[in-house]
């Protein structure tokens, strides 16, 4: 099977089974999405969604958040991972939005990565979710699932995986493909024990085909 055929199968499968894939983070505007994505590092979307309503209520725009103190914000996010650094990042991010971007979330990767707490993955998420830009965010799920299926080959870093996926998925599908792979990794192709028995990607999945050969 060629890579072209593998990608074509995967696209057809997800278009049919997951046509409306989108982020599971709850947000109303780019500012709220940015806060949620920063909080979601090493944390589940479910937990972030339990945390953000109180933050958005108290700090509805970057302006209010930029004026927050660490002591005020910390109690609101203390139940999620790395609360100390995330508190500092959120306040720093809001201050920089105010100072450098007129209180608006910029929509280029280059500008976004200048904000505290925002790396390439977060910038790719924001630009692809808000603006449908063809920027593939590679998190742990995307990295694992793409490698198992064989959409990436010998990719040793998220950046290498990002480049391969971006090259092979049609540009207009990249923003959606990110969610396809994340959700597949979260619910089917889970890290410890992938649920291959209920997965429709078995015919093209390199990991599954390899397991089959070992059993025979
Ligand atoms: S067949 Fe198994 S390993 Fe392959 S994508 Fe599906 S769940 Fe993951």
UniProtKB/TrEMBL annotation:
InterPro entries: DNA_glycosylase, Endonuclease-III-like_CS2, Endonuclease3_FeS-loop_motif, Endouclease-III_FeS-bd_BS, HhH-GPD_domain, HhH_base_excis_C, HhH_motif, Nth
Domain HhH-GPD positions: 39-187
BP GO annotations: base-excision repair, AP site formation
Keyword match Cell division: no
Pfam family, one: HHH
EC number annotated for this UniProt entry: 4.2.99.18
4Fe-4S as UniProt keyword: yes
Cofactor: [4Fe-4S] cluster
Keywords: 4Fe-4S, DNA damage, DNA repair, DNA-binding, Endonuclease, Glycosidase, Hydrolase, Iron, Iron-sulfur, Lyase, Metal-binding, Nuclease
Positions that bind [4Fe-4S] cluster: 189, 196, 199, 205
Gene Ontology molecular function: 4 iron, 4 sulfur cluster binding; class I DNA-(apurinic or apyrimidinic site) endonuclease activity; DNA binding; DNA N-glycosylase activity; metal ion binding
Textual note on the cofactor: Binds 1 [4Fe-4S] cluster.
Catalytic reaction(s) noted: 2'-deoxyribonucleotide-(2'-deoxyribose 5'-phosphate)-2'-deoxyribonucleotide-DNA = a 3'-end 2'-deoxyribonucleotide-(2,3-dehydro-2,3-deoxyribose 5'-phosphate)-DNA + a 5'-end 5'-phospho-2'-deoxyribonucleoside-DNA + H(+)
Domain of life assignment: Bacteria
Function of the protein: DNA repair enzyme that has both DNA N-glycosylase activity and AP-lyase activity. The DNA N-glycosylase activity releases various damaged pyrimidines from DNA by cleaving the N-glycosidic bond, leaving an AP (apurinic/apyrimidinic) site. The AP-lyase activity cleaves the phosphodiester bond 3' to the AP site by a beta-elimination, leaving a 3'-terminal unsaturated sugar and a product with a terminal 5'-phosphate.
Similarity comment: family membership: Belongs to the Nth/MutY family.
Classification via NCBIfam families: nth
Entry protein name: Endonuclease III
Species of provenance: Haoranjiania flava
Gene name per UniProt: nth
């Amino acid at each position: 099977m060629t890579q072209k055929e593998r990608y074509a199968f995967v696209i057809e499968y997800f278009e049919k089974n997951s046509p409306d894939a989108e982020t599971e983070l709850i947000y109303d505007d780019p500012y709220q999405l940015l806060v949620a994505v920063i909080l979601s590092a090493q944390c589940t979307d479910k937990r972030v969604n339990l945390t953000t309503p109180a933050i958005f209520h108290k700090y509805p725009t970057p302006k209010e958040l930029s004026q927050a103190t660490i002591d005020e914000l910390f109690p609101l996010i203390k139940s999620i991972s790395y609360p100390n650094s995330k508190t500092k990042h959120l306040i720093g991010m809001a201050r920089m939005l105010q100072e450098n971007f007129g209180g608006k979330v910029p929509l280029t990767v280059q500008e976004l990565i200048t904000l505290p707490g925002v790396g390439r993955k977060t910038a790719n998420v924001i630009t692809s979710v808000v603006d449908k830009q063809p920027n593939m965010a590679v998190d742990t799920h995307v990295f694992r699932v793409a490698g198992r299926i064989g959409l990436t080959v010998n990719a040793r870093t998220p950046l290498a995986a990002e480049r391969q996926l971006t090259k092979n998925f049609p540009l207009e599908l990249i923003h959606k493909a990110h969610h396809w792979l994340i959700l597949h990794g979260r619910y089917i192709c889970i890290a410890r024990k992938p649920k291959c028995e209920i997965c429709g990607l078995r015919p093209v999945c390199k990991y599954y085909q390899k397991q089959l050969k070992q059993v025979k």
